[in-house]
Model the fold of this input.
Amino acid sequence: MKVQIDNATEFGSIVKSVRQAQGIDQRDMASILSVSVNPVKALESGKGTVALQTALNALNELGVKVVLELPLDMDTKHVEKLLSRKIFE
Done:
């Protein structure tokens, strides 16, 4: 399933929903991420102050892929070089 998110609140709601669907509580999620429970609570409540790496780690641990849709007219060669891999369409 694909879902578009437009703000930190929506992002947090998705993380929380996926975590709960997998039967993981906030304390266990914090342990998995090697953080205290406070960043997990902040992430799920839509606080924009959570470290991006923590948010990406949470999604990765929950099996959620993050895909960025780049502008159609963008030359992707530079991005491919930065990521050291091919960009898929």
About this structure: Residues 38 and 83 are 31 Å apart (CA to CA). The chain has five helices and no strands. The mean pLDDT is 89.
